[in-house]
Amino acid sequence: MGGFENSLNALVLLANFVLVPALAYGSQLALGAVGVTLIFGILRFANFAHGDTMAFGTMVTIFCTWALQSAGISAGPLPTALLALPVGILATIALVLLTDRFVFRFYRKRRSPPVIYIVASVGVMFMLNGLVRLLIGPDDRKFTDGERFVISAREFKQSTGLAEGLSIQTTQALTIGVAILAVALLFWFLQKTRTGKSMRAFSDNEDLALLCGIDPDRVVRVAWILAAVLAVLAGVLYGLDKSFKPFIYFNLLLPFFAAAILGGIGQPVGAIVGGYIVAFTEVTATYAYKQLAVYLLPSGWVPDGLLQFLSTDYKFAISFIILVLVLLIRPTGIFRGRVL
Amino acid sequence: MDEEDIRKALTAFGLIGLGLVLTGLLQSWNAALGVLNLCLISGVMALGLNIQWGYAGLFNAGVMAFTAVGGMTAVLVSYPPVVEAWQVGAGGLLASVLALVVTALVTGFVYRRLPAGRKRFWLITLVALLGYLVVRSLFGEAVQLIEAVNPARTGFLGGLGLPILFSWLAGGLVAAALAWFIGRISLGLRADYLAIATLGIAEIVISILKNEDWLVRGVKNVTGLPRPVPYEVELQQSDWFASVISWVYSGRLENAADQRAVLAELMIPASSIFVKLCYTGLFATVTLLLLVLANRVAQAPWGRMMRAIRDNEAAAAAMGKDVVARHRQAFIVGSAVIGLAGAMLTTLDGQFTPGGYNPLRYTFLVWVMVIVGGSGHNLGAILGGFIIWFVWVEAEPVSLFVMRQITDLIPMEPASAYHLMASAPHMRHFVMGLVLLLVLRYSPRGVLAEK
């Protein structure tokens, strides 16, 4: 093998095990983190129920997928869950609007401190958690169907003649595509429409926005709806890419928060950038670079170990370390979000 | 506490007592005492969280972390040291710690000596990276050696072999140290940051405890921790316990044909109840002691200052109070109490199982306890611990019973009946969330309101 071919192999290896998975995971994180940051910006609290809202929407989508599958309806090469997605989104919108009406509105009218909202969101989280486990159970569920690969490793090897294969799963391609579409629509909404502009105004300065005659209830409602749509998208895409398990969804809260704070609280662009940074750091730090060293280093130089910076068991530590560094160095985040 | 408070507290504790007596009669006295012991531990946890939330208004989403480090300390204090593991691994561990210190010193030196700029940044990154690689390789080798020592039974360094009661104090101290670290990072920023940072540290502490086998054996669990109270088997063979039992059951023994056999029969459940009662005594002493201390602190100038800060930070700061430092104090003290409760819990279990910690049970349930019991009211928090733990434990048999009635009444397929029965225990999450929201909204001061 020549040196050039070795470097090509190394590139493909990185693309296959780092770039593509991190892009997909980053897209999922970005979608979730934008939802968290929107609630942060408009309602001004860290929503601990976000992970379980995601789990709820995904659960409804899964039920609907099963119903479609047993009715023999499928989306061809794409996962059936895509057809079921609107139902999940509608159910989750209804859910968040109900919780807002019966839980959060009360504290908003009284102008309670943010910490009370957090406690209330813990209550909502508990209830959703119970509901999801009651209906679908605490176990792992897979609901991916359709064509598995856009490019499979074997085809790639055959067509290029390289030793390393690059595989792109349908779900990964779908995740990245849907995320780009959703984010583009979101920014169009926030930048160009009247409601979006009023939301940004409200997020920047609540009192001024109220003076200008912006209806706070409407802004809050739209924020919840957007957060719900994004949460269900993130949840379903994550579930398609990996699998659905309620507890894992709860645990995603930490990377979401880390991404939102890293990007700057209340800054949707920041949350997206933050999501990708968290995902890339996590994947690059937990990837074992052994094979890469085999390609790039002379044969005698390759070390014995896995060449892994951090065991995958500690991937949550990455989010936390990022969070700590941001809090220590630049509490406002990259895009100068709100800090108090 | 005024008269109304005392009346309420007596009624509430009386109701729980009644519930425990009913549990004793319907299930078994052993079960009732088991619930009571955990009620006491929950009460201490809630008391700790109340110091943070009730006094200082801090949101701690990592109660689980402090409970778990308390439990870890119980292992590290009480388990006999594994001499062989120390012999093979201690040198390597020490070397890796030394390497870590040297890296930190060099980084600090570069940071201070060089002017800020790109050159300093890259040099520091390089030093940190090199240091990390060295530390990691030294550490990895030592860990491999330690974990290879009799992996089926030990495979970790063991502890100090001290009486486990010491660990209650030590657990509090370790939890306090962890709280100091978290408080340093996230206090003084907005309230959400502490919540998120504590949520993160909880995940990390649990994953460290699960994966660092050399420390406390990870998911292989440490079992057979020494006890502060006698063992059942010893009791059954001891003469004094036999005489106590024959005195208690003297009526029944007189009429028995084979007195020795009947006595032996009676001693088996009696010994286990006696052991549980010993624990109850220990836990109740700790709970009362902490309650008295917490109440004194609350009435002292420190408590008044904390409430002043909580109710109006700006005004308190204007009066010259250091808000962040006070918050840090409350956070550390509260975490120490939670760590103590964690050590007590591991002592009671006699084993340490990192896989068993989950945030709903060990963090957010404690929150429900404090909110229900009465934020800012010490006895209220303990009462909340009793109420919520009792409900949490008893909700399972009750919901199973209800589900069984439903599946009996309504004809359905076996699969869905099975599904309903299996998911019955999850009902209690839903109920707990509902209770939290209802109390927070309609009675935000809880059962025993702060005056």
Overview of the molecule:
The complex is a heterodimer of chains A (340) and B (451). Chain A has 340 residues and is an all-alpha fold. Chain A has 14 helices and 2 strands; from the N terminus they run H-H-H-H-E-H-E-H-H-H-H-H-H-H-H-H. Chain A has helices at 3-43, 50-70, 81-109, 114-136, 153-160, 170-192, 194-204, 206-211, 216-241, 246-251, 253-263, 268-286, 290-296, 315-329, and strands spanning 149-151, 168-169. The mean pLDDT of chain A is 89. Chain B has 2 domains: 3-81 and 158-442, ABC transporter involved in vitamin B12 uptake, BtuC, CATH 1.10.3470; 82-157. Helix content of chain B is 79%, strand content 0%. Chain B is built from 19 helices and no strands. In chain B, helix 2 (29-56) crosses helix 17, helix 10 (239-248) packs across helix 12 (259-299) and helix 16 (359-373) runs parallel beside helix 19 (427-442). The longest helix of chain B is centred in the middle third of the chain and has 41 residues, at 259-299. The termini of chain B are close together.
Note the beta-strand portion of chain A.
under 5%
The overall pLDDT average of chain A reads 89
Domain count of chain B: the total is 2
Rounded to an integer in angstroms, the radius of gyration calculated over CA atoms of chain B is: 26 Å
CATH top level class name of the largest domain in chain B: Mainly Alpha
pLDDT below 50 for ≥5 consecutive residues: which ranges of chain A? Answer: none
CATH architecture of the largest domain in chain B: Orthogonal Bundle
Largest sheet of chain B: none
Give the oligomeric state of the chains in this entry, treating copies of one chain as homo and distinct chains as hetero. heterodimer
Q: Name the helicity range of chain B.
A: over 70%
Please report the number of helical segments of chain A. Answer: 14
Tell me, briefly, the overall form of chain A. Answer: globular
How many individual domains of chain A? 1
CATH topology of chain A: the name is: ABC transporter involved in vitamin B12 uptake, BtuC
